[in-house]
Structures are given as structure tokens and as C-alpha cells.
């Protein structure tokens, strides 16, 4: 299954920083089972949101012509629970990049309070390049068109 875990990209500085949001709602089926009577956002899905925000940032370096995949979560720390009604703000900063991959520091805040943080490695998958390279590119571009700074004429971000 392929899906976007973030609702909207709100900021993207090509190859440097990105920000996205996710509104947590009881309409999400997984919250009814995790945990019955006390719904809590699963930490694995919080990591997925950080990975998607960081992966979009890594993909911006090549204007989304490389296929970027999560290669490693070096560390992940969780500081508080996330519940329905919360809005998670995902932030990612690219701290290292090379010909085959990227390292990003990511974090989640809720109401300005640090909720989770991680360090992630992303790999550029060799042998796949060009217009159709980035994972679910059409849906990604539709999501990015709403982000301030997106240039529709180049399907990318300036800089």
C-alpha cells in the first residue's frame, strides 16, 4: 500500500529544510484499536510522517528525478503522546548529502512542544532516474503545488 501520511507541505527550502502538517482525527481507523478507550497515535506512524517529510526534502535536491527511499532510522526519541485533535508539525533539516544518499534530522512538535525527534538516512536508488523516478510522483506533485514557493513552470522550487 502506498499513501501519504502528511496532510500538507507548508514549507520547503530546496535541499535545506521542510515542514509538513498532519491533523490527527478519530476518523482514522487505527486510532480505534490503539488503544481502545484511550486513542494514541502509533509511534511507527509518527516515524512514517517524519520519513515522508525528510524524503520529500531529499528528493527536492534533484527536483524529484531520483527515487528516494528511507534507508535507516539511526535514532528516534518520543517525548509525549499524540491524540485525536492534535496537529503534528513535522520539520526536517538536511544535514548531509552525497552522491548516493542523504541524512536528515527530523522532529515533530504539537502546539510548539517537542513531541518526537529522529535522525534518518535516505538512499537514492540507482538505475531509476528521469521523469517517472520519484515514488508516486503525480500525487506528490499535487501535494507540493500547495506549498509556498513551488514553481509550477518548472515543477520544482527555486534556488
Report on the structure:
By secondary structure, the chain is α+β, with helices and mostly antiparallel strands. The protein is globular, with a radius of gyration of 16 Å. It is built from three helices and eight strands, in the order ββααββββαββ. It has a six-stranded antiparallel beta sheet with strand order 1-2-4-5-6-3, with helices on one face. The model has no long low-confidence stretch (mean pLDDT 87).
* Dominant shape: globular
Structural class by secondary-structure content: alpha+beta
Strand order of the largest sheet: 1-2-4-5-6-3
Task: Report the total helices.
Answer: 3
Number of strands: 8
Key attributes of the depicted protein:
159 residues, alpha+beta, 6-stranded antiparallel sheet, two-stranded antiparallel ribbon, 8 strands
Short description:
With 159 residues, the protein is of the alpha+beta class. The chain is 19% helix and 43% strand.
List the helices and strands and how they pair.
Layout: E1 8-13, E2 17-23, H1 30-33, H2 43-60, E3 66-78, E4 87-97, E5 101-110, E6 113-129, H3 137-144, E7 150-151, E8 156-157
Antiparallel strand pairs: 1-2, 2-4, 3-6, 4-5, 5-6, 7-8
